[in-house]
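Students often ask what a holo structure prediction actually looks like on paper. The answer is less mysterious than it sounds. You provide the chain, you provide the ligand, and the output is a string of discrete structure tokens encoding the 3D arrangement of the protein together with NAP.
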Amino acid sequence: MKALLCTRLGTPDDLEIKDIPDPVAGPGEAVVRVKAASLNFFDTLIIAGKYQYKPAPPFSPAAEFAGTVESVGDGVTSFKAGDRVIGYMTYGAAREKVAISTERLVKMPDGLDFDRAAGVCITYGTTYHALKDRGAIKAGETLAVLGASGGVGLAAIELGKLMGARVIACASSDEKIAFARKHGADEGINYASEDLKDALRRLTDSRGADVIYDPVGGPYSEPALRSIAWQGRFLVVGFAAGDIPKLPLNLVLLKGCSVVGVFWGSFIERDPQGHRANTVQLLEWCAQGKLSSHVHAVYPLADAPKALKAIAARQVMGKVILRP
Ligand SMILES: NC(=O)c1ccc[n+]([C@@H]2O[C@H](COP(=O)([O-])OP(=O)(O)OC[C@H]3O[C@@H](n4cnc5c(N)ncnc54)[C@H](OP(=O)(O)O)[C@@H]3O)[C@@H](O)[C@H]2O)c1
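The corresponding structure tokens follow.
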């Protein structure tokens, strides 16, 4: 089978496509024919050895996929050949077939295609965990989302609306704001041309946002925190801008607010049942059209460097999919 391989840590152009032996399902595992593998921002880091998980080469990037079960190993009773599934595996999905524990698979509902299904698990899973379990967002509260047109950002716009919040999309271009509004955002702030703190205050009658969802970091976190509401929750999701900001703790005191970490990878290890329940719910909402899982572009494996460069260049809105 064909696999996209990181044979040495480096740039997207260092990736290679190689023929490797087909996998075999071990006990408790299934072999899945990958129809769509979804890329995330962290794939740009993992191939450079700059992510929190540092696999030794050779390995395939892409941590989530959708496909069809081809065979199952000893002891597997809950899945059979032909089942349409999604799965999560930290890294390794950018290849034609994967062998994976069936504990990491969830069946796909009817009415959902492989491309959209492939991108649900991590972006929407992270965001649902963030808003529900970590931010305890309530209907009627105001949610401000940074990086609002990216993978997790778009998920926050859509889930925020579904959970009854008033949603303010914050992004770096008018095109990205328009995209977020199309997906349900009530208001938009272009933080490349407007002062983020002032704009957030203006849109909240100086009260501030109850929940701030921050997957970007860099220069945006502090102005966002400065405009959080009394007893607001600042959700630390990621640092796509590169720099990890240092927040002044006097602001946390003065606002009576909470700065809350969100670590989906650890959550799913610690609470696999909660993760599975969340994923089943998210897939259903997607199949019902309540969540878009918007696909920005689909690339063949050979164009993976182009796909990863588009993510790193901040050009993507929604998800980028590889079709092995
Ligand atoms: N905590 C967790 O469990 C968890 C789970 C999944 C992902 N994450 C993290 O969340 C972040 C976003 O992931 P994603 O897959 O949603 O990424 P994405 O689709 O690439 O979106 C990232 C957004 O960040 C903004 N950005 C600002 N500066 C950037 C830069 N220098 N390069 C790239 N983007 C930049 C861009 O929006 P604008 O142009 O509008 O600013 C972009 O839309 C990443 O740091 C990722 O590691 C964390």
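Residues 272-287 form the longest helix (16 residues).
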